[in-house]
Amino acid sequence: MTPMIEVRGLRKVYRIGKEKVAALGGIDLDIPQGEFCCIVGASGSGKSTLLNQLAGLEKPTKGSVVIGGQNISAMSEKQLAVFRQNHLGFVFQSYNLLPTLTAVENVALPLMFKGIGKVKREEMAKTQLKQMGLGKRMYHKPTEMSGGQQQRVGIARAFVSKPKVIFADEPTGNLDSKTTVEVMSAILKLVREHNITFVMVTHERDLSGYADRIITLKDGVVLSDERQEHPVVAEELISEPEKENMTHEDQTETDQ
Amino acid sequence: MRITDLISLCFENLRRRKGRTALTVIGVVVGTCSIVVMVSLGIAMNVGFDEMIAEMGDLTKIDVYNWGNQGKEVKLDDKAIAEISALDHVNIATPIYNARYLSASIFSGKNNRYQMDAYNIVGMYPEAIQALQYELQQGEYLKDAPGSGEIKKVPVLVGQNAGYNFMDTKKRRDNYRYPGMTDAKGNPLPPFVDVTKDKLILKTNVNDTTDTSLKSLEYELEVKGVMVEDYQKGYVTSAGIVMDLNLLKRLEAEYMKANKIKDPNYGKTGYDNVTVKVDNIDNVTEVEKKIQELGFSTDSMNSWRENMQKQSQTIQVVLGSLGAVSLFVAALSIVNTMTMAIYERTREIGVMKVLGCGLSKIRSMFLIEAGMIGFLGGIIGIAVSYTLSFVLNHFGPALMSMGLGSMLPMFGSRVSVIPPWLALLGIVFSTVIGVLSGIAPANRAMQISALEAIRHE
To answer: Euclidean distance between the first and final Cα of chain A, in Å?
Structure first.
C-alpha cells in the first residue's frame, strides 16, 4: 500500500546574507495512512521547517513531498489552496482563531472556503464542537474562552472537513499540563475514529507518548525513527472528574 | 467560497474598525459631494440657459428664409413648404405673411367714428395657428376660407388689445384709450370699440388720391376669436389681425387690381420666411439640418442653445475636475486604510490561506471592502449633495442679493440641479474609485506568505 505521505530527498537551504544554511539536509520519509506521527528535536533541529515543507507552506529547495499521490511541491499557490481545502487540516500553537468570529463560525471557516452553504456548514461545525465538549461555547468569541477551549475550537476546525492529513505545530505549546492532556486526548480520539494521518511537531518529549511513531531530528537530518507498539489510548488519558464534566456539558447541550 | 459569505466577512471587517471606516467613508462623502455639487452647478447653468432662451422664443421653432445658404437660387413657395412639412418630426410649416402692398384701415362705430390702421395683418395656414400655440382668450380658431367667389365677410382673429388701437376721429384730444385707464371717479374706461361685438369694416386706402378712377374696397371683418397677448409670437397678438393666408392673398390681389398696381414678380418669388414647428426640442438640430440640405437658410434658438451648452459643458468639466481633486484625496485615504488593515490582519490572512482560502478570494475580499467604503461614501455623498443642492437653491437667491452672487454661477431659477443620472453616476463612480484604490492593497494581501503570516505576532 502506498503511504499517505512520501518524502524524497527533501532539502531546504536558507540564504542568510551570503551564507547558505541547510535547514534540512536530505530527508526520506514514508508516513502511512492513519499514523500518529510525532516529530521531535531540539530548537533549530529543522522540525518546524520539515512540517512547513510537508504542509506545502514553503517550497523545498530540492526533493519532493507527495501526499495521497499528489506532488504538492510542484503545485501552484492556487492548486495548493484547493488541495488544502480538500485534504489538509492544521492545528496551530497560538490557536489562530479569527477574533471577530464565534466558535461555530471559526470551525465552519474551512467549509466556507469550500463553498458549503451557511446552514449546512454551521450544522457540521456544531456537531464537531459538541464532540469536543464545547456545546456551551458555540457562540462565544475567542476572547471569551480559555486557552484550552480555544485550542479545542482550533482542533474542531482542523477536523471538521474530515481531511486526510492534519498537521500540528506545537499544539499544546501554550497550554498548562492539565489542559495539554485534555487537548491531546481529544486529538487522539478523533484521529483514531476517522483514521486520519496526524503529523505533530513538538519539543516536549512527554507528548510523544501518544504517538505511533517518533521521528527525532538533529541538524536537519533524521536522527532516529522509532515506532511504538502500544501508544497511550485516549480513554486512559482522561481523568474521571473531567470525563463526567464533559459528558455533563454534552448532555445539557442535547437537552436544550 | 460563496459571494454572500465574502460580502458578510467584509462587512464584519468594516464593522470591526468602525472609527477608521467612518473616517474613510467621510472622505469619500466629501469627494462625491464636491464632484456631484460642482457638476450640478453646471447642469443648473444649462437648465438656466434653456429657461432663458425659452423666455425669448420657442425652442422648437425654426425660421426658414427665402434665400439660399450656398449661393444657390431657391424659392420658398407652397411647394417647398409642403416638402418641409413632409420631413420627419415637423409638426407644421407655415408662412407668416405680411401683405406687402395691402394698405387699409379698420373702422367701427357710428359713421365710422373710430379708426385703426390695419398695418399689422398676418396671413397663416389656419391649421398652423393653433399648432404654433397662438392662445385664444375667447372664441375659436379659424377654418379654411373659401378659395374663390366674392369676399363678403373676412373671418379673423384679433389681438387682445386691438380695441385700444382705435382712435376717436371726432376728438382732437384724449382720442385714445389705453388698458387700465380710468375716468375722473376712478371707474375703468373700456376701449372705444368692443371688437367681439361691434361691427368692424376694413377699408382699403387709395394709393393715389389724384387718380379718381381708383376705388376703396370695403370688407366686413368677422371676429372669430381673440388672441392672448404674447410677444414671442409678435405684436400681432396684441393689436394685430390674423387671417387665412389665402384670403389675405386674395385681398391683396383685389387691392392691387383696384389700385392698378402691377408687379410682374408678384407671387413668383415665394414667401419671405416660413415658420416650422418641430415636435421635440431634441429633434430641432436634425430638422434644421434637413431644411438646410433643401437649400434654405434657417435660424432657430437651437444654434444659440447648442453654443451655450458647449460653453456650460466646458464649465462643467472644469468644476467637475475641481471636485475630482477631493475624490482623489479620498481615494488615497482608502488606499491608506486598506494598507493599514492588511498590516493588522496579516496573521488572519495567513491563517485563511493555510485553511485553504484561495488567493483570488483574499484579493476579492479586500477589493470588496474597498468597494464597500466607496459605495457607502457614494450613497451618503449623494444624500448630502441633494441636501446641499436644496440649501443652495433656497438660499442661493438670497446670497445673490447680498452681493455674493458672483460666487454662484446662476442663470436660471436654480443654482444646483442633480438629475437622477448624476446621482447614479456619483455612486457608481465612487464605488469604482473605491475598488481601484483597493487593487494595490489587495494584491499585497494576496502576496503575503502564509508561513510569515502565521509567525507574525
So the answer is: 46
Give the best-scoring range by mean pLDDT among A164-168, A203-207, B14-18: A164-168
Q: Is residue B87 part of a domain?
A: no
Quick one: B350 and B438 in the same domain?
Answer: yes
Q: Is A95 on the interface with B (CB under 8 A)?
A: no
Domain end call among B262, B277, B296: B262
Mean pLDDT of B363-392: 94
Interface touch B451/A58, C-beta < 8 Å:
yes
Q: What stretch of H or E contains B62?
A: strand B61-68
Non-local CB neighbours of B321 within 8 Å, separated by 6+ positions? none
* Nearest Cβ partner for B354 among A57, A77, A99: A57
Q: Which one of A59, A79, A112 makes the best mutation probe of the B interface by having the most chain B beta carbons within 10 Å?
A: A112
pLDDT band at residue B403, thresholds of 50, 70 and 90? low
Please state which of the ranges A174-188, B86-100, B401-415 shows the lowest mean pLDDT. Answer: B401-415
Residue of chain B whose Cα is closest to the Cα of A119: B5
**A252 has a pLDDT exceeding 60:** no
In this structure, are strands B104-108 and B218-227 parallel, antiparallel, or unpaired? unpaired
Among partner residues A84, A92, A117, which is closest to B454 by beta-carbon distance? A92
Q: Is residue B49 part of a domain?
A: yes
Query: Is B356 close to A157, i.e. CB distance below 8 A?
Result: no
Q: How many domains does chain B have?
A: 2
| CATH code given to domain A5-255 | 3.40.50.300
Q: What is the ipTM of this complex?
A: 0.85
**Nearest residue in chain A measured CA to CA from B349:** A98
Q: Does the residue B216 lie in any domain?
A: yes
- Residue in B2, B355, B360 closest to A115 by CB: B2
C-alpha cell at B341: 488593515
| Residue B387 and residue B247 share a domain | no
Say yes or no to pLDDT of B255 above 50. yes
Nearest Cα neighbor of B137 from B157, B153, B118, B167 is: B157
Chain A touched by B455 (CB under 8 Å) = no
CB contact under 8 A, B357 and A115: no
Q: Is residue B330 part of a domain?
A: yes
DSSP string over B285-311: HHHHHHHHHTTEEEEEHHHHHHHHHHH
